[in-house]
Amino acid sequence: MLGLSLFSCYASASQSAIRSSFVDGVPADTFELTNESSCDFGASSLLLDLSGSNGGLYFDVSAAGAGIAVYQPLIFKSGQEYLAEIPALQDGDNILVLELTAFNAGASIRFTTDLDDTKGPVSKVVSDSEITGARIQLHSASGRISAAFDDSSTATIPITACEVVVTYPNS
User: In Å, what is the CA distance from 12 to each residue of 38, 82, 111, 155?
Assistant: First the structure.
């Protein structure tokens, strides 16, 4: 028979965040999600929600969709080992959910794709101010917490404590 013990650890002030950064590029845009906390997260998910962005952003992942000129499929450059599966992303989607098997302290996931905007006369290259308002959200055993992208194309989810579940044999 196994017993369970639940305890909390506190992230240090110097490394206490899940940081998401966006870099506009041609032909592909890059997102990098980094666990800068001291927490090792087990099964969890990261949700990238573009619906609140200033530019009305969406993913342009196929030639047949809503985007203009250039499209780029979702391609993972690093951190794929943390994914439970490669997410299905349709052209025109504005939400991407990454289901994670783990997201350990220091881990990073980097992927490329193309974003287009819906505000303004013509979709164009996405700028820093257009991603402002988009959100990144972490769902874990500890709960749900989110942060908005600022005008420097960064969203920082503050992590103050992590919960760890330890299993051990009963005597």
Answer: 7, 23, 27, 19
